[in-house]
Amino acid sequence: MTKPAAPKRYLPTSPFKAPAAAAPKHFAVGDQVTHDMYGLGRVIGIEDGIAVLVDFGSVQERILSPYAKMSKL
What we know:
Elements: E1 32-35, E2 39-47, E3 51-55, E4 60-64, E5 70-72
Antiparallel strand pairs: 1-2, 1-5, 2-3, 3-4
């Protein structure tokens, strides 16, 4: 089993710009969302900072934070 790669550190002496920090995604019950693998769905439950439960019609899935493949519509 391999460990996921750690993000690269930004060095203050670097001539390149610091990477932009991505804002954490927040969802509320009832939000319509789209997921890269499951398609359109609606948030039906929330576990603060851990996961959201989404109803995609034919299946309900628990999507874990940081919700990389999911966005709010």
